Structure formats: structure tokens, C-alpha cells
Amino acid sequence: MSPTDAPADAAADAHDTGVADVLVPYSGLAERHGPWPAGVTVHVWDGVTPGSLPPREVLDTVGFWVLPYAVPDADRLLARLPHLRAVQSLSAGVEKLQPLLPPGVALHNGRGLHDASTAEHALGLILAAQRELPRWAADQLAGRWEPHFTRSLADSRVALVGYGSIGRALEARLVACEAEVVRVASRARPDEQVHAVDELRDLLPRVDVLVLVLPETPATRGLLSTEELAALPDGALVVNVGRGRTLDTDALLAETRAGRLRAALDVTDPEPLPAEHPLRQMPGVLVTPHVAGGSASFRPRAERLIVEQIRRWGAGVELLNPIPQPRAETGKEAGQDPGA
Fold first, then answer.
1. 111 is an active site residue
2. Of residues 243, 245, 262, 312, which has the active-site annotation?
3. What predicted TM-score, i.e. pTM, was given to this entire model?
4. pLDDT in tens, 300-315
5. Which domains, from first to last, does the chain contain?
6. Phi, psi for 230 (deg, rounded to 5)
7. How far apart are CA 251 and CA 257, in angstroms?
8. Taking every annotated instance into account, which residue ranges of this chain make up the domain D-isomer specific 2-hydroxyacid dehydrogenase NAD-binding (predicted)?
9. How far apart are CA 252 and CA 255, in angstroms?
10. Measured between alpha carbons, how far is 285 from 269 in angstroms, rounded to an integer?
11. Are 86 and 4 in contact (CB under 8 A)?
């Protein structure tokens, strides 16, 4: 069975065995988006209330589960769904969820849901760093009025490492700001002017802003370390809105402590970043607490995806955004390429 065949087979099998029910994290979906397909019952569990679980009679009929977004330990419900056939994550990255799934359960990710929000946040981080907004905010509170010229995003050369859907959304915003964009992905795509990640070391000396938009896989973990950061020019800005462990924290700390590089990070390693961690007090470093995807633009997109998946589930056809199983022989997740 191929990975893309699994969802359709899962839906058909679920209907045949009487476990066609769906569990979702949001109430009122039918009222907002229309009636559900015949034969499909939709239950709600948001995972937020400590200790709360759906009744056993509901758990025994759920074949398709949409996980709550950003709810710690929501995956504890996996062991209580005996007839589960498919899982929908509302996150784009599913590397932590994937190994927890029982055999035969199809996995689908939230690709596209966070594109606008993450791109918007990344742009905000870049502009804040280039135009020194943290300094001006501190001056406002301190009553200082000390204007000076700053860097600019316009005319800067920005490398997007992980040129996927989020990278494309960010590129549109960067181009509007008159920046030059360099696209980098796991493999070269000359027809799209995309460089291979193997070329990154040669590109870095001419980069003003380096943006990481990477999933965490064996291939991307620690991808930006001492040698790569050393290749960046003095004063370059390192931005991470992908996964914290794709960037070597110790190497970044050494460069920022020396005042050679700057950083704007929405994800860190470790995460959460401890209160006493030196990156928090480092001049030229801006940290936000993994909130790039968490804006008002997320919920409407998430609801549209959930509704479409439920309709497909009810029709017994292939669900969107299937994630193939990991390739044991390489340790790489198929479909999880950097910037695929």
C-alpha cells in the first residue's frame, strides 16, 4: 500500500466496521460550514480541561481524530482510541507525533495553515531587528530621544533555507519590501532558481539575513552550526521560525556574545528557553516564545481544512496532506524534506 492510498482505504474501512465517527477540537463547525455527510457523527474534545476525556462510548466509535492545536499531552488520547484509522494534526511539523501512532493509522499534517501567520511573524522579526525596534521601545520607556540611522530590509540579501510553502509566503512579503531573496532547499530546482542545501556554505558570505524555515529531521538537525555561522558576514542576522534544533545554540551564542552576529528567534533549543539562559540578555538577540503560527489567521484556515477532511472522510476518498511513514533505512521522513 502506498502512503497516498492509505487515507482512502482507512476511510472505507472505517465505514465498513462502524467506526466512522470523527473527533474534532472545535464546536459549532456544522453551524458555520454546513451539515456533515450522511453516516458521519462529529464529536468535540478540545483537550484543554485537565483530566477531561470523551465518554468511552464515543472513543469506541472514533475512526478519524483531529488533534487540538498546541495542547500539551493531547496525544495521550491515542491509547484510548481502539479503532482509530486516521489522525489530522493542525501543525505542519509532525516529527514528534509520527512515532507515537499505532500501526496502520494514517497521518495528515497542517501544511498551509500557518503560512501567512509564520511569514508575517518572520517578517516582523526581521524588520524589528533591522530597524532596532527593541532599542526604540526601551528608549521610550526610559524617556530617551537618541535617533540614529539603522540597517534596512530594502536592498538586503535574504536567504530562505527551507523553501516550501512558508518560504514562498515569506518571499512575497520580502520582495514587497525590496529585498533580494535567495531560495535554498534540500535539493536544487534550477527551473525555480532554488539552490541545494549543499551550496549553502558558498552562499552564506554574501547573505545579510539568514532565515531558517526547516522541519526537524536527521538531515536538518544542527544544519547551521559553527562553520556555517562563521561563513556569514559581520553583522548578519540569523532568524529561525522553523525548529530550534536545526540551529546550534552554543555556536550562535558564541557569535552573538562576540557581537559579530545578531539573531531573531521564534524557536530555540532548549524550548522553552530557560529564564536564565544567556540568549535572553544578549545584545542584538530578539526572542519570541514559539508564537509565529499563533495568530488570528490560523483558526479560519484550520476550520476550512477540518471541514474538507470530514467531507472527504464521509465520502471514503483520499484525505489531504498525507504524511508517509519514515524511511527506516535512511532515518529521513519522506515528505518532510527541508523546504520541499
1. no
2. 243
3. 0.86
4. 999 999 999 999 999 9
5. 21-84+296-323 (no CATH), 114-287 (3.40.50.720)
6. -65, -25
7. 10
8. 123-292
9. 5
10. 14
11. no
